[in-house]
Structure formats: structure tokens, C-alpha cells
Backbone:
């Protein structure tokens, strides 16, 4: 595995080893929002008025990850903030059973239909990007356009040896081991030093790292374990040609790994089969690009939202 692939693997998977239950209340968004709507697999709050923009966070991440963009975005848009049950200290709800990703998609579609949000702009970070692609596949009318933030149609390519075409069947046994190992950490304490070690590489800025660690420590490791497993065995590569909604792939790079020269070709290869895709890169950032470079991310997001 080369250094670029290794760093991406760390960015996507490293938080999963540190997640502990710490049931409490999730932090409010930075803009005035409506009351929370609880569903089987997700909860939703809203802010602002205008054309709808749906924001889906990544693995073990609360809706607060979007705090830096919500106030500006809500000036012209109806911002729908999604949070997966079991993250941010929330009750896991139905997410202790298999089928979490499909359940999230089902809940999102129900919310979109009920609230007449068809054709919304959808933004997903990491796991949220995979969910966005799943939603576009299952309910193409729900999405008018899709922004994918540092995510892939098949996460397991990050674990593939050079020259090997990995498949979900090949990954499933290792993914199951990882799921069971992470789920077994539920209720067990972890030191700050271990948490810092496991989250290394996910963000570059000290403030970003502090926020990320605090969020990760509140996630229910049982939910995270199941979502990790489903992430790793979900392969949407063959579905990309059928996704007609325009896709914007936003990816980070930095002076270490991945460099700009490495990142661009990698992401273009992963999304080559998509019929309508554009690319936006943001430098001096890691996986949590919205935390490392909030101004640049907001600029890219508002340009996407229109």
C-alpha cells in the first residue's frame, strides 16, 4: 500500500478504533434551527429559507461539523442538517441492527418526500458522501445535484494491495472482524493519548483535531462498528453511470500526503464512470477539510449550492 493510499485509509477508518459511548446532548448548530425531527435511523433539524440543501456528516460525526457554513448558507437556502442516530451521544434507535445505511437512505427519502424537497442539493462528507450516492441510485428524483466531500464509491479500494481488484466478498471477512472488534469497545475507557494517536491524520489544524476528538468520543461504537462494516462492503462503482445528477467531488491535499499531484489522479480514477462530474480541490487540509479550511470550503459549498 503506498503512502497516499495509507493516509486515505487512516482518514476514512482511523476514528473507528476510538469511539466510546458518552450519552449526552448534541451541540446546537451555529444558526437558529427548527426543532429536531427524530426518525428510526436519523434526526433532522433545519435552518434558513430558500432552495433546499441537505448536509450529511460522516462516520461518528455530528451535524455540528457544518457549524462553520450553516449561518452563511442559511441566508439563501433551507438547510437540512442530518445526524445519524448513535452519533453525538444520541440514542442509537434502530441503528443497532444491520442495514443502517439503507435505513438512512429510506429515512432521507421519506423526509424529502414529506417536506416536498425533491431535487435538493445534497452534500455528504465521507460516509455521508456514500449515502448521497446511495440516495441518488435508489431515489434519483430526490437529488438535483450532489457534492461528495472526500468520499469514494467503494471505500475498500483503500485496503487493496497494488494490482489487486478488490471485491466486497474479498473484504467482508476482514470487515466483519473489524466490526466485532470495534463493537466490543463499547463502554470501555480510552486515554487521551490513545485517542490522539488513532485520530492522527484526520485533520491538520489544532482546533480541528480538538473538535474531531471530542465528537468521536461521543459516538456509540456499536453503531460505528456496523456502519464501518457496511461502508466497506458497499460497492457503488458499477452504479456511477446511472447517477444522472451532476456530481461535484471535493477533495483535500497538503504538503505531506496526499499531495495535490497524488490526489487529483486518484479521485478522477474513482469517479471516471460518472457521466457528469466535476472536481474541486482544497489545499492545506486533511479529511475534515471543512474544519481545516473553513473559508475555502464555504466558498466551494456556496458556489455549489447556487
Residues:
Amino acid at each position: 500500500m503506498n503512502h497516499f493510499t495509507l493516509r486515505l485509509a487512516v482518514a476514512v477508518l482511523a476514528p473507528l478504533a476510538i469511539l466510546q459511548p458518552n450519552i449526552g446532548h448534541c451541540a446546537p448548530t451555529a444558526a437558529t434551527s427548527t426543532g429536531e425531527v427524530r426518525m428510526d435511523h436519523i434526526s433532522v433539524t433545519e435552518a434558513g429559507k430558500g432552495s433546499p440543501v441537505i448536509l450529511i456528516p460522516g462516520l461518528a460525526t455530528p451535524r455540528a461539523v457544518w457549524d462553520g457554513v450553516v449561518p452563511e448558507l442559511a441566508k439563501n437556502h433551507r438547510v437540512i442538517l442530518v445526524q445519524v442516530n448513535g452519533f453525538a451521544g444520541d440514542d442509537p434507535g434502530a441503528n443497532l441492527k444491520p442495514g443502517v445505511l439503507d435505513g438512512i437512505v429510506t429515512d432521507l427519502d421519506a423526509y424529502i418526500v414529506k417536506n416536498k424537497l425533491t431535487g435538493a442539493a445534497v452534500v455528504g462528507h465521507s460516509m455521508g458522501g456514500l449515502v448521497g450516492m446511495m440516495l441518488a441510485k435508489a431515489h434519483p428524483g430526490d437529488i438535483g445535484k450532489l457534492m461528495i466531500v472526500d468520499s469514494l464509491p467503494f471505500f475498500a479500494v483503500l485496503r487493496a494491495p497494488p494490482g489487486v481488484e478488490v471485491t466486497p466478498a474479498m473484504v467482508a471477512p476482514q470487515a466483519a472482524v473489524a466490526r466485532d472488534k470495534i463493537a466490543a469497545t463499547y463502554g470501555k475507557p480510552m486515554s487521551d493519548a490513545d485517542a490522539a494517536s488513532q485520530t492522527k491524520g484526520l485533520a491538520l489544524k489544532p482546533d480541528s483535531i480538538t473538535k474531531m476528538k471530542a465528537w468521536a468520543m461521543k459516538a456509540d461504537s456499536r453503531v460505528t462498528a456496523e456502519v464501518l462494516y457496511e461502508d466497506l462492503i458497499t460497492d457503488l462503482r458499477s452504479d456511477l453511470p446511472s447517477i444522472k445528477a451532476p456530481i461535484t467531488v471535493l477533495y483535500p491535499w497538503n504538503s505531506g500526503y496526499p499531495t495535490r499531484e497524488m490526489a487529483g489522479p486518484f479521485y478522477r480514477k474513482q469517479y471516471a464512470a460518472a457521466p457528469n462530474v466535476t472536481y474541486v480541490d482544497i489545499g492545506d487540509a486533511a479529511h475534515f477539510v471543512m474544519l481545516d479550511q473553513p473559508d475555502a470550503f464555504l466558498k466551494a459549498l456556496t458556489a455549489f449550492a447556487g
About this structure: Residues 2 and 259 are 13 Å apart (CA to CA). The first helix runs from residue 3 to 13.
